[in-house]
From TrEMBL:
Region annotation (Disordered) ranges: 1-20
Residue ranges annotated for the UspA domain, each copy included: 19-151
TM stretches of this protein: none
SUPFAM superfamilies membership: Adenine nucleotide alpha hydrolases-like
InterPro entries cross-referenced by the UniProt entry: Rossmann-like_a/b/a_fold (IPR014729), UspA (IPR006016)
Protein name: Universal stress protein
Length: 269
């Protein structure tokens, strides 16, 4: 387990081939949720967890991922991750960095060297509000790796229960998207709900993951040993949906928008 506080945005971990899980961290409650969500992602892949605090050039507190007492907050978060890892006997490498710049630009640059970029997304106060803010929209459109947008609920709590939802379709990246959704189901011990736009053999490949098959637009689930209605904690979507997700409005027939307040994992290639 290793840590480091550094103002240099270089990626020493990538020199050895370990592309990190990057968390945009501003000390907010949503950012803490995103950090906790990212810990098992890094641990399961045996890659570093890179905590990035962005300091803007104006007043050093502007923007959705700008630091609130950045140095102290990031240090405390890293110590918390380390303490939890030691308590559970898990091995995780944590590094932290502060970088001057625009929040979205910094995280997009980080995405060039990352396996995943993860940020916290606050609860939408009104149904008419956009699904995602400007930083999330920029990452959805321009990131060079998978993006995790971790939503908090109305009470400010993280989404720790519910199904993992994924669309089966004929997009060229769908195998990678479904594979990641199945891995998330295994990692988080969650049911995977497949919104059925095609038939394939993923269920047979992951017999230990409970899967729901849903006819797109029907809302009806078909699964052996049905466990009853569940909300959605995470939707996994591919490149085509990532490119247009910030343009979607409610109501909309797109199946992912049927779960507008869950977290979203955008698979970019």
């Amino acid at each position: 387990m290793s840590t480091g506080q550094d103002s240099d945005p270089a990626h020493p971990a990538t020199a050895g081939g370990d592309r990190p899980i990057v968390v945009g961290f501003d000390g907010s409650r949503a950012a803490h949720h995103a950090l906790r969500w990212a810990v098992p992602e890094a641990e399961s892949r045996d890659v570093p967890l890179r905590v990035v605090s962005v300091v803007t050039g104006d007043d050093r507190h502007d923007g959705p991922a700008a630091p609130h007492g950045a140095g102290h907050s990031v240090d405390a978060a890293v110590l918390s991750v380390e303490a939890e890892a030691e308590r559970t006997g898990k091995s995780i490498r944590v590094e932290s960095v502060q970088i001057d710049g625009n929040v979205a630009d910094v995280l997009i640059a980080e995405s060039r060297h990352a396996l995943m970029v993860c940020i916290g997304v606050p609860w939408r106060d009104r149904a008419a509000d956009p699904l995602f803010g400007p930083t999330a929209a920029a990452l959805a459109t321009h990131a060079h790796c998978t993006v995790a947008l971790i939503r908090s609920d109305s009470a400010g709590s993280p989404p720790e229960s519910g199904v993992v939802s994924v669309v089966l379709d004929d997009e060229p990246d769908n195998d990678a998207v479904v594979h990641l959704a199945m891995q998330e189901g295994r990692l988080r011990e969650a049911t995977v709900r497949q919104v059925d736009r095609r038939i394939d053999s993923w269920i047979r490949r992951f017999p230990d993951v409970h899967v729901e098959i849903v006819a797109a637009g029907s809302g009806r689930a078909y699964a052996a040993g049905q466990r009853g209605p569940q909300g959605t904690q995470l939707a996994v979507v591919g490149q085509a949906d990532a490119d247009r997700i910030t343009e979607l409005e409610i109501p909309n027939c797109h199946p992912i928008v049927g779960y507008p307040d869950c977290s979203v994992l955008l698979v970019r290639r």
